[in-house]
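Cross-posting from the chemistry board since nobody answered there.

I work mostly on the small-molecule side, so proteins are not my area. We synthesized zinc ion and want a rough idea of how it might sit in this target. Sequence and SMILES are below. Is it possible to get a predicted 3D structure of the two together?
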Amino acid sequence: MSTYTVSARKYRPQKFSEVTSQEFVTQTMKNAVVAGKIAHSYLLSGPRGVGKTTIARILAKALNCPNQKDGEPCDNCESCSEIKRSIHPDVIEIDAASRRGIDDIRDIQEAAKAHPMKANFKFFIIDEVHMLTQQAFNALLKILEEPPPYLVFVLATTNPEKIPATIVSRCQRFPLQRLRVSEISGKLKEISKEEKVKIDDESLFLIAKLGDGALRDALGVFDSAVSYCGEKITIDDLVSFLNIPQKEIYFSIAEFINSGDVKGALNYFNELSARGLDIQTFFNGLTEHFRDLLIIKSTSEEELIDEPDSIKEKFSAEAELFSIDRILRLMKILSDAENRIRLSSNQKIFVEVMLAELCRVDAEVRDLSEIITELKGSKKKFLTEVDSTNAPAKTEVHSAIKTNEKSVSGESSPSKDEIVSTLKQLFDAEEYKFN
Ligand SMILES: [Zn+2]
């Protein structure tokens, strides 16, 4: 029989100090164990894979461990070892997703009446507690209202809002946080060392990101990557295995956009597309790229983006090429496209048009400026004509043009709004002329 154990299980934290992130929860629990101030019911809420049942088990171990020190279980004694293997008779785990009825809670009620067989505390861990039926909640409430002194409930849920207030009010609440990408990648790095797997920083960050805040999910991706790539994981192998675009392609697209090279951008996109690029993933990646660029450009703080150092350096170099205004114009096009791309019947053409638009975004502004210069050039001729006709509202025309001059002859280049208002006034003036 194979001895292979998935990483999420193999590296499941056995002590509070081993839990990644969630310090607020683990420290409070350690303090409670040391002080002997144990609540009868705890409610751990938070997204999946962030360590709710892991923390519940560690608490059960710490409370029942004869060698407990500073609130931590020893993880060696009989009690700790039985809890670790889920065979301790006084630590009972229930998955409310599959055992949600009144009879299941009645079983708990019966079991709760009996004193613990060997431990100090009888421990019930109810996972996905929000799945219980109303009747089951009522029965649970009865136990929580008058719990015997040896009883501890840990309720875990991804949907705390679905739990009746009467239950919540009897619990000590701990909301668990989604893990940061850097926390997950740090943990992945430790584990890959332990497993003697060579992995580059870019791959670590990519896997950590795919975990979407859950260490367990990231470890799942890590395991698959190891089984595909073997003992050496490189970003090239990883992206081809996961079939997702490399960061590199967004830097190339940004280069085409920067030089206004529509043809280059479209050829490159078509090449990627022929290699099986997922268009929605590409779109999301490009949006994220310019969002990261905006952060680097506007804050100069590289730590705010979840990327390895090599990528952060590239962003800093790219930030030199783009002004904040220009990045905002690009982001505007991308965010306008966001809802429409989902509804588009041909996403490829949609993205091609959008790429052309992104490449032209500065050209459009330049063109408008040129138009204004031209219009300004013909202003004198126009004024002369107005003067010669001795039009009654001549002063109004003059003042409109004076305003134009102010708004277009500023030291900095005119903003889009200024250009539009200038054009509008010039056109109004033309209209007046023909009245
Ligand atoms: Zn122990």
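Reply from a structural biologist on the board:
Welcome over. Reading the output above for you: Residues 7-175 form a domain with the Rossmann fold fold (CATH 3.40.50.300). The pocket of zinc ion is lined by residues 65, 67, 73-74, 76-77, 79-80 (CB under 6 Å). Happy to explain the token format if needed.
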